[in-house]
């Protein structure tokens, strides 16, 4: 019985960690990133702008850090995104570049 309970808890834990951006809209996030982020990053860092996500010494280390960075950019640039838009953008970036599971 204890083994069964342990396995159920393990499964639930793994499922909960599978997607830190549960419920986000990846297509909407892609649109937001392409429209707002890529050109700013290209102007600041050169290239196509996506190298900021793949550079060796990137600042973002966790899913929470990714969402915080998206919020930081939103505030600093004055995009006035709602929380769901921030979540969508972070989910797209995670799905495309970072692959955080928790």
Short description, anyone?
The chain is mostly helical. It contains 5 helices and no strands.
Structure characteristics:
0% strand, 102 residues, 5 helices, globular, mainly alpha
Structural commentary:
There is one protein chain. The chain is built from 5 helices and no strands. The chain is mainly α and 102 residues long. The protein has one domain. Helix 2 packs across helix 5 and helix 4 packs across helix 5. It is globular and about 60 Å long.
- What is the general shape? globular
H-E order: HHHHH
Strand content: under 5%
Low-confidence stretches: 10-16
What fraction, in percent, of the residue positions are helical? 55-70%
The overall strand count is: 0
> Tally the helices: what do you get?
5
Please tell me how large the radius of gyration is: 16 Å
Distance between the termini: 28 Å
Strands, helices and their partners?
Layout: H1 2-17, H2 26-45, H3 51-54, H4 63-77, H5 83-98
